[in-house]
Amino acid sequence: MGKLTQSLNAVTQQLQQVKQGINKMEELGQELVGHTFDAAEAGLRAGYAYAKAETGEAFLEPPVAQPALQPSPVILSSNLLNTGETRWTKASLKAQFTDLNTAYRHLREVHGIKLSKRSWEGIINAFNGVSHSSKSLEQRVQQLEQKVVSQEERIAVLEAKIHQILNSSILPGP
Predict the structure, then answer these.
(1) CA atoms of 133 and 149, how far apart (whole Å)
(2) Is 88 in contact with 124 (CB distance < 8 Å)?
(3) Residues with Cβ < 8 Å from 23, sequence gap 6 or more?
(4) pLDDT in tens, 102-142
(5) How large is the greatest C-alpha to C-alpha distance in the chain, in angstroms?
(6) How far apart are CA 93 and CA 120, in angstroms?
């Protein structure tokens, strides 16, 4: 059991590091979106000023554009998630969150729902209550415990085979 526990701990640590890396990449992506918008706006202002200067017109600053992406989406109340009367579509989720990553982040941070694959279909199913099984937390824990026990048994069998192979190769033949 010691090797299995150590192995599981090592894998858990690696998964945590991957998760932290993904979260950092999401944060950098959001920063990049903001900086890209600022750079585009500055480019448009410069182009507008250059065009006005070439035509000899007085420079009038264009109205300030509003960002296409909202920095923080409106948080849905939990009663809108997984209810039978609300049917979410890709269009309604895009209108609410503007992009896939923002909708996924809302599911993860607000509702504690993690999807194995990010896709609009998976997110729509999660919002509509399709992707969650009807198993309770206790049933899921029990199922995981059974998997651990079966893996421990499999490891014991494999270790016995390894010892048998090592003993047969060390002992001289007849």
Answers:
(1) 23
(2) yes
(3) none
(4) 888 888 887 778 888 888 888 888 887 754 445 677 877 88
(5) 104
(6) 9
